[in-house]
Amino acid sequence: MAVRLPRPHRFDAWAALAGLLGGLLLWGIGLGTRPADEPIVLFDGRWPILLPLTVTACCELLRRSAPRTGLLVGTLALIGDLLTQGSLVTVLMYTDLMYAAVLYGPPGSARRIPVITGLLSIAGTLVPYAVWRVPEALLIGVAIGIVSFAPASTGLIVRNHREAADAALLRAEQTALLAEMDRTQAVTAERARMARELHDMVANHLSAIAIHSTAALSLDDDRTSREALTVIRENSVQGLSEMRRLIGILRDGADDREPAATPTLDGLAALVDGARANGLDVGLDAEHDSVPAPVELAAYRIVQESLTNALKHGEKGRVSVWLRQRDGALDVRVTSPYGGRDAPRAPGSGAGLVGMRERAALLHGTFDAGPEDGPHGKIWVVRATLPVTDTVIDRGESE
Fold first, then answer.
1. Are 381 and 372 within 8 A, CB to CB?
2. Stretch among 68-72, 95-99, 225-229, 365-369 having the lowest mean pLDDT
3. Mean pLDDT, range 369-375, rounded to an integer
4. Three-state SS for 31?
């Protein structure tokens, strides 16, 4: 099976061509690195210089695609060049091969080559001096260091800088991705919060409007129709007020008008009175101290949605609202008659229970709702336990 050599990079091809032409130019004018009478020169004459030059130029084609192969073959070519009168361009191209082997080679080679060339430079300095005992012998180690250790060290420095830049770019991309994920989560959480607020504020009033408008249309009685229209008007006005409050929050102070205050547990009595006006038989039993605002809002909305569900789905009978604060938590319990109704008195989206469960979860509380057996038949029970400690509230608000 034939082995396909990797295609050389365009810059490497130009570097190989420039090196070959430069070497031919120096060869043409007769410029070598050593005189012909030196003992190391085994191949006298000008023609032997071309073989190492051509091989090294071909190795330049591999400086990115196969840097270790290029360095190995280039080292053999450099040894061959030492046995001739030599070419300065061959030496220069070899230093580039050494630099490229560290810069583009595998990480293991990038770590080992500078160490090996550094040891060779030290050995090339100490051994000749120890043998010949002349200062000129030190130049051998200097030459080895210039040809091998210096380009290898330069390649390692450049590689480390590139890797650091790549790591910084990766961290920046990861930071941007995390920021985008946080932004998406924040938008999703805000949309869910506004959906809960919109549902809890408007559903109660619209349910009452739907039920009483049905009564006004189905009963041919002026007094009953007038009472139903009165309730419809009151719920329309209250629903409009709640919508204006929500719009004020969304505008975030776009004008000088302050939105209405957030509902608190002190408003439960008015909420129950409104439910009674809508036709529910509601009893309120609440005992609590001062609790954080998020807990107050969640408890108020859970009671409000429970009364709305009792108005739409419940049977005639007593609806009980019970609140107690104990053991660092606020317990909420709403019961209403359950069963026997084929269809709700007003259409619903099914988002009420989801919203109540989300409100409790955001405060790290618990929530459950479902039918149970009561003293006078089946009842629908809504339970929520909302922690009131500052640590839990801070965590709930941050989410």
1. yes
2. 225-229
3. 85
4. coil
The bridge status of strand 281-287 relative to strand 318-326 is parallel
Query: How far is the C-alpha of 49 from the C-alpha of 152, rounded, in Å?
Result: 25
Model confidence band, residue 81 (pLDDT cutoffs 50, 70, 90) = very high
Residue 97's φ and ψ, nearest 5 degrees, are -65, -40
Give the residue range(s) of CATH 3.30.565.10 domains in the chain: 263-399
What's phi and psi for 221, nearest 5 deg? -145, 120
User: pLDDT band at residue 256, thresholds of 50, 70 and 90?
Assistant: very low
Task: Give the residue carrying structure tokens 């000129």.
Answer: 136
201: pLDDT strictly greater than 80: no
The 329-337 sheet, strands edge to edge: 281-287, 318-326, 329-337, 377-387, 366-374
How many CB atoms neighbour CB 391 within 10 A?
9
CATH topology assigned to domain 263-399: Heat Shock Protein 90 (3.30.565)
Residues 375-389 as b or e (16 or more Cβ within 10 Å = b)? eeeebbbbbbbbbbe
The reported pTM is 0.56
How distant, in Å, are the alpha carbons of 202, 212, 218, 275 from that of 223? Answer: 27, 13, 13, 20
Q: At what angle do helices 222-251 and 268-277 cross, to 10 degrees?
A: 150
Give bridge partners of residue 377 from the DSSP assignment.
Answer: 374
Compute the residue count for the chain: 399
Measure Cα distances from 4 to 8, 10, 15, 152 in Å: 12, 18, 22, 28
